[in-house]
Write a structure and sequence with these properties.
Blueprint (H helix, E strand, L loop, with lengths): L13 E2 L3 E9 L3 E8 L5 E7 L7 H16 L8 E6 L5 E6 L4 E2 H8 L4 H20 L2 E2 L8 E5 L5 E5 L6 E2 L26 H5 L6 H17 L9 H10 L12 H10 L11 H7 L7 H10 L8 H8 L27 H32 L13 E3 L12 H7 L11 H4 L15 E3 L28
Antiparallel strand pairs: 1-2, 2-3, 3-4, 4-6, 5-6, 7-9, 8-11, 9-10, 12-13
Length: 472
């Protein structure tokens, strides 16, 4: 591509011999973003091209390339993916990104007016998911605003947020390469004044994760009302309003009290009074969650599983349960789901608890089955070994003689045991003892006999047909 033919390149222009320009997406302070198609592969991409007038500035070029590197390090699906970084033959750098459909939140706000509370929570949590990973990697965005949040759709047509423009981001020294010096000078102002935190206005080098949380609070307010919380016609008025004017939550009837409190805390002038991390802010959103997407974002921010298996969830919480276990949100870890490392302590604790519950359930089922089988055996107390019934003879009468054994056997009813009665149980069955014909035999169970002094008396309880685990 020959830049003398015009900038930005017109539709049909060939960039670096492999990308055919198909349209214009937008422009910024340092360059333009074009839609293009790979000439050989055929897929659509977005190309950010540095303005030729700025290509001679070493700092601008370094920051431009640093933006591409910062975005390529972030693996969150809510950050625009960087495919390639190249330079034109004349030295002007550009980088290739995934192509997005849709529009930014600023455009959508101008077209349709304020968003619903549910959409605001959902969009902000998705953006916060990207920020959680960026902060963990030592990257502070420093320019969050509705125009840098892109609203696209998934394959199922559900809304999906992508965070754009890391051109003014602050990167921790540990994340810089050996030949990358820090670019932000003390006292410099980076970002849009209506969206940056007071400490970032005083010095961009002082911005940290809490500064991004301030900016996200400003974005929330604007999405709910259609305008930023602080106003000013000139730069001085804007700065004065941001640093000095008290904040008041939106006057919307449908604004939940929890969301008003979140906004108040996000927009505290002193950084130490705000939410101190993306994870802390995510936990504050928990009472406001109404969609599966929002819950997934919270779980990912806290680096916990986003759901439980349906069968296990239904068994432990009952059918129709919408949200996973809320006790998983008590841990302050603010990491992305794809961060390196082993399982979290909460994950291991949950697995141990579920394993213990499974063993308890199996033990209870086994005990219940054993009790049912024992109750099915005739003539035995449940839960105690079978005891043979003893036939105690009455004292013989002096006026009568003992009958012969044949007559006694004829008078004594024989006990027939069921066919399925175990063989080893048959040996313990009751034996008939000859009794006097003058007085009927008295049958007594062993456990009804008079205890022997000093001996231990076993205690047994016969259960009826009711549930043995129920309360009487």
């Amino acid at each position: 591509m020959h830049l003398e033919h015009g900038f930005p390149p017109a539709t049909g222009s060939l960039i670096d011999g492999k990308y055919v320009v198909t349209g214009f997406i937008g422009s910024g302070g340092t360059g333009v973003v074009l839609a293009a198609r790979h000439r050989d592969l055929g897929h659509l991409v977005a190309i950010k091209l540095l303005h030729p007038e700025l290509a001679s500035s070493k700092d601008v070029v370094t920051r431009f390339l640093r933006e591409a590197r910062a975005m390529s390090r972030l693996k969150s699906e809510h950050v625009v993916g960087v495919i390639d970084v190249e330079r034109l033959p004349n030295g002007i750098p550009y980088f290739v990104m995934e192509h997005l459909t849709g529009s930014d939140l600023s455009t959508r706000l101008a077209e349709r007016g304020p968003f619903s509370v549910e959409d605001v929570v959902d969009h902000v949590l998705q953006a916060l998911e990207a920020l959680a990973e960026a902060h963990r990697r030592g990257i502070v965005h420093r320019d969050l605003k509705p125009s840098n949040l892109w609203l696209t759709t998934r394959e199922d047509d559900s809304d999906f947020i992508k965070v754009l423009d890391f051109g003014t981001s602050k990167i921790a020294r540990s994340e810089l390469t050996a030949n990358e010096p820090p670019l932000t000078r003390s006292g410099s102002l980076l970002g849009s004044p209506l969206y940056v935190a007071p400490e970032q206005i005083r010095s961009a080098s002082q911005a940290d994760a809490r500064s991004d949380i301030w900016s996200l609070g400003v974005v929330m307010h604007e999405l709910l009302t259609g305008h930023p919380p602080f106003h000013g016609q000139f730069l001085g008025e804007m700065i004065s309003a941001v640093c000095s004017d008290p904040y008041a939550p939106p006057a919307r009837e449908d604004l939940p009290a929890e969301l008003a409190q979140i906004l108040m805390k996000c927009l505290q002038k002193a950084p130490e009074l705000r939410f101190q991390s993306a994870g802390e802010l995510a936990r504050a959103f928990q009472p406001l969650v109404r969609t599966a997407s929002s819950q997934v974002s919270i779980d990912r921010i806290l680096r916990l599983p986003s759901s439980t298996p349906p069968s296990l969830r239904d068994a432990l919480e009952g059918p129709g349960t919408r949200l996973p276990f809320t006790d998983t949100l008590e841990h302050p870890t603010s990491l992305a789901p794809h961060a390196a490392g082993g399982e979290s302590r909460a994950t291991r604790r949950r697995r141990s608890s579920l394993t213990a519950l499974a063993f308890i359930a199996l033990g209870a089922a086994g005990a219940f089955t054993w009790l049912r089988l024992e109750r099915a055996l005739p003539g035995h107390a449940v839960g105690a070994p079978p005891t043979p019934a003893a036939t105690v003879p009455a004292p013989p009468s002096e006026s009568q003689n003992e009958p012969d054994s044949a007559a006694t056997a004829a008078q004594t009813p024989s006990r027939r045991e069921p066919d399925n009665f175990p063989a080893h149980r048959r040996k313990l069955g009751a034996r008939a003892v000859p009794v006097s014909s003058a007085r009927p035999a008295v049958s007594a169970r062993v456990d009804d006999a008079r205890p022997i002094p000093g001996a231990l008396t076993p205690k047994t309880r016969t259960l009826d047909d009711e549930n043995p685990f129920g309360h009487r």
